[in-house]
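Example record used in the benchmark description.
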Amino acid sequence: MKRFGALLLSVGLVAAALWLRGRLDDPRGTDDSGDARRITCATEVYRACEALAAEHSELEITTEDAGDTTSRLASLSPGADPGFDVWLTTTPFSAIAGESLGAAAAVSPLGPSSGPLGHARLGFWVHQTRAAALEAHCGQVGWPCLLAAAPKRWEAIGGDPAWGPLKPHIDEPNGSGGLLALGNAAAVLVGADADALAVEENAAFVGAITGLAQARVKPGLESGAALTRMLAGGPAEVDIVIALESEGARFGAAATSKARLIYPSPVAASVAYALPRSGGGKGLENLMELIEEDAPGALRATGWRPGAGPDAEGFPTLGGLLSIKRIWEEIR
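Model output (structure tokens):
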């Protein structure tokens, strides 16, 4: 019996050693927060997230406007689960969340950001049948001319009377693409580094975006869906889409054959970042490593450019951006 008991003890010690070795060899085994696999993706990068999920079936992907995620994070009680392990999002909301949450909360629900994973420039997608008329009218198509033309009919700017009114689309500023566009317009019409007071007191800017808000068509659509309608169905419903260049990637050559992509000056770009929830363990570190390794390729495959891209020239401050968002929502 003593020998049998000693044998059992030795077997138990070997089994315990093997279990411990397995825990040490498996980096997720030391993670006291469980497996990290939940990624919340901003609307602008959802196709890249789908590509990641196709390559890594264990990932759990949800899509949400970056403004909604930011608001939800701001309302969390300390230590509460944000509903994701990593937030794959884009500027300007990644910066808004980092700055506002860091200032408002004793402990931020977010950990340190990744480096830039890719960028997409903002552009005006103008249907080819309308582009020549707009360029002839504007000379150089930029925010001042586009905003002045938006509430008008095409015949007023040299187009065919049969075209009817201009039919522009812009996303709500609850998403990064829409807020980036309005911020880029403010950089031109209000001035460099416009703050909340400068935005609110600039009657020309408020009037210009009011005209755009009232002229826009299909407000319930996202820019990708609006661009799809314009490219597939022609300019009868939508003839100008203000959106990131990446939205046209799924259409390939058809996008540039049916629409002219015009970049306003100064150039503005949305940059993608991964932000982990705070307090994670080894599993979260592994997930961040996976994203930093694979997300740049997934973004490039869906129309994003590598790196951080051009610096935003004179972009509004955090207060300026939040004022633009509030003004737009009041117009709506």
